[in-house]
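Issue 218. Parser rejects a valid record. Input:
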Amino acid sequence: MFKNRTLCEGSKSQTGCSEVAYLGVVQPESENKTNIDWTVTVTAQVNHKNIKFKIDSGADHTVLPANVFQNVSQNAKFEPPDKILCGPDRNSLKTLEKFKTNIEYKGKNCTEEIYISAANPKTKFPELFKGLGVVKGCYSIKLKPGAIPFAITSPRRVPIPLLKQTKAELKRMVEENVITPVLKPTEWCAPVVIVPKSDGNVRICADLIELNENVMRELHPLPKAEYSLNLLTGAKIFSKLAANSGFWQIPLDKKSSYLTTFITPFGRFRFQRLPFGISSAPEHFQRRMSQMLEGIPGTICHMDDILIWGSTQEEHDQRLTEVCKRLKNSGMTLNAKKCIFSQTSIKFLGHIIDGQGIHPDPDKIAAIENYQPPTNKKELKQLLGMANYLARFVPNYSDILFPLTSMLSNKVTFVWEAPQEAAFQKLKKILSSDPVLMIFDPGKETTVTTDASSYGLGATIFQKQADGRRSVPMHLGL
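Output the parser choked on:
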């Protein structure tokens, strides 16, 4: 338990914060005072339950984590939080509700207003958010029988403006034990591709195309978004975790490491961790993550993104804690900047998910709304590629877009006339109406309606709700 130093008085904005609340940080009354233990805790009774409190005599408010609150919530009268509590980084603390209760300590009683905070794994599992982890167990690259080694002896040229950043990135990767210099002859040696990043740094990509031709893949199935999204029955509270450079947390055995040798203007290096360019890397990483989280309900893992959900805050927090324990025991670490905790709405796999169902990502809708009418087949394919991702939200998708899809044939000359423009505008109108799909519930009565024509096949899945309404988990169009 901790108390908050300062409060953003009357603030209703999650971003507008005029003062900073130092959660669990106690400041001395005088600079002259020394040798004071600021970690002192006391045990008081809340609703006749013993709770350990961290003391801050200058704090304005008391906060209980949701998992502790569950033990003292009997007969509590809840109210929505009326103020925003902020942390040292000026980010708001996720508060769920507040209640007034009696607190007893050493025979004295008082009535205190307590805020309930959502679970924060950063506090409970700080080691999960430190540095680049190392997962237990090395990966061994298996080569096909008769594999012929490939090696180049001179590096590709790096643009002069990128030389400094390239050298710095190589140094960083060496310091993090991702790569190490190679000083002896090797049978395999690949070139590199230097990719500029938006922040001014570069990404170093080993071009392992020749090695990949000889790699035996695990062929572990990768999850499909449309299947995973239909597993979220009853989900109300969500958290999303992101591994910190996930592939780089899986060590390679030494023999495999030499297979990944690459050459740069600054010498040769080999990967000590699983590189992004190996063809078997995605399926191996997915298998490791799936095994790591196996048996935990309310979790979906797509590569290095993990979604945790629950129908209640308590259920969500229990699952989140178990996931964090598994990750900690495995040696995995997370990217704190990309992790999101205890939300009622969350973006995952290109969709917005909340208690109402599944919504299309507004950014993807905006991309279509702002797309200029195509002037050739290449631009048309780009448009249809964006539209296909949102097809599940569009009833009669095949019929609506037939004036566009029919022009993909090599036998048809590209034109953009009234039928094409009408189809384009109808698509934008449907998507801009904020369509929402219910999450599929295998326990509910389900009906599938289909329709076919000479140029398309369509279907809609309906599910009967408790009040008799029919909801739609998905539209299909071919």
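Fixed in the parser; the record now loads. Residues 407 and 413 are 7 Å apart (CA to CA).
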